[in-house]
Design a protein that fits this description.
heterodimer; A: mainly beta; Immunoglobulin-like; seven-stranded mixed beta sheet; globular; B: mainly beta; five-stranded antiparallel beta sheet
């Protein structure tokens, strides 16, 4: 059981380039999330999805796009990379239940450097 | 403005002693709190949680205390072990079905042998 996997582990981008951060979970979780963590800061929510075909913005969505065509995959797209997007990106997922607070499970992260 | 605050960036303790990590929050509507642990180059992993209907939750060496009137929670680790060295994040869940996590900045705990 792999849990939440993310690729790539590390990437260097030039300003203006684009890329997609991949996230896959094998736990059949409906809820998936993208967070970024800047140095010395906590994680901030970029986008989230409550199921295939449904996505919504989090706290810091500008400069990013997401899609959710399957339950397993939740890719994050950067269209025009900027130095401010240098960060570590974490994908997470959780079960959907009613009346109970479920734990979010995190992937290992993608470290992105924009130069 | 931070909704969840961890005012101590770092903490160093001796092996076998107690580690106390603190967290403050601003919104009295928050009703569920979590602690996540993070090792370098890994994602955060869930450690322990507490609902606002309780003031204490214990799991092995880890205990979380909640003081609602002070909007304060703390994580106690007893006894501390070198393997506990990590960054600890306090977090809360927003209301509603999407249940988004709001994190503090984290406290780096170092347990010295």
């Amino acid at each position: 059981n792999a849990g939440v996997t993310q690729t790539p582990k590390f990437r260097i981008l030039k300003i203006g380039q684009s890329m997609t951060l991949q996230c896959t979970q094998d736990m059949n979780h409906n809820y998936m999330y993208w967070y970024r963590q800047d140095p010395g800061m906590g994680l901030k929510l970029i986008y989230y999805s409550v199921g295939a075909g449904i996505t919504d913005k989090g706290e810091v969505p500008n400069g990013y796009n997401v899609s959710r065509s399957t339950t397993e995959d939740f890719p994050l797209r950067l269209e025009l990379a900027a130095p401010s997007q240098t960060s570590v990106y974490f994908c997470a997922s959780r079960e959907q239940t009613s009346g109970r607070r479920e734990t979010q499970y995190f992937g290992p992260g993608t470290r992105l450097l924009v130069l | 403005d931070q909704q969840v605050k961890q005012n101590s960036p770092s903490l160093s303790v001796q092996e076998g002693r107690i580690s106390i990590l603190n967290c403050d929050y601003t919104n009295s509507m928050f009703d569920y709190f979590l602690w996540y642990k993070k090792y370098p180059a890994e994602g955060p992993t869930f450690l322990i949680s507490i609902s606002s209907i309780k003031d204490k939750n214990e799991d092995g060496r880890f205990t979380v205390f909640l003081n609602k009137s002070a909007k304060h929670l703390s994580l106690h680790i007893v006894p501390s072990q070198p393997g506990d060295s990590a960054v600890y994040f306090c977090a809360t869940l927003t209301q509603g079905g999407s249940e988004k996590l709001v994190f503090g900045k984290g406290t780096k705990l170092t347990v010295n042998p």
